Amino acid sequence: MSLAGIAGRRGSRAGFTLIEVAVAMAIVGIGVVTIFEIFSASLRSERGAGIRARAVIRARALLEQTMTLPDPAPGHDKGDFGDGYRWERSVREAREELGGNHHDLDVKQDVTMYEIEVSVLWPQGPDREGVYTLRTLRVAPSPPA
Q1: Distance CA 41, CA 48 (A)
Q2: Could you tell me which residues are beta bridge partners of residue 137?
Q3: I need a surface site. Which of 3, 39, 111, 145 has the fewest CB within 10 A?
């Protein structure tokens, strides 16, 4: 067998060159890194959604607790849930939003409308804070004069 015969058989073999394998590995590597980044971002997003969902649940519970008070009194108070979340609650008499043709009749009303605002706050970073606020109105008997 001559050298020309051996070289001819080697040249006819099917296979990949080192450059082709390196390019394929680079493409696969980029794809794997991209998938890991997407997965990591979705985990961060899910964590943030869970934190906000807990804030919403706590704000609604605090608002419902405030709405069930028999005699709401104007004021502002705050507290801490003990696990990084804190709350603020404000109750004030609602301003009357009247049109331009309002005539003051000096009539004593038997009910008072209160504006209730509840906020739940949580830390989002060293100098940032997340907040979820609910506002509503409630009608209650007027306090005795």
Answers
A1: 11
A2: 115
A3: 145
Distance from C-alpha of 15 to C-alpha of 23, rounded to nearest angstrom: 15
**Claim: this prediction has a pTM higher than 0.90:** no
Tokens (6 digits) for 130 = 């997340």
Exposed/middle/buried for residue 35 (C-beta within 10 Å: 0-12, 13-18, 19+): exposed
Q: Give the number of residues written for the chain.
A: 145
User: Would you call 42 helix, strand, or coil by DSSP?
Assistant: helix
Per-residue confidence in pLDDT tens, the chain, 145 aa: 555 555 555 555 788 899 999 999 999 999 999 999 999 989 888 888 999 999 999 999 999 999 998 888 899 999 999 888 999 999 998 876 655 555 555 555 788 889 999 999 999 888 899 999 999 999 888 777 6
Give the residue carrying structure tokens 């082709």: 20
Buried/exposed code over 106-126 (b: 16+ C-beta within 10 A; e: otherwise): eeeeeeeebebbbbbbbeeee
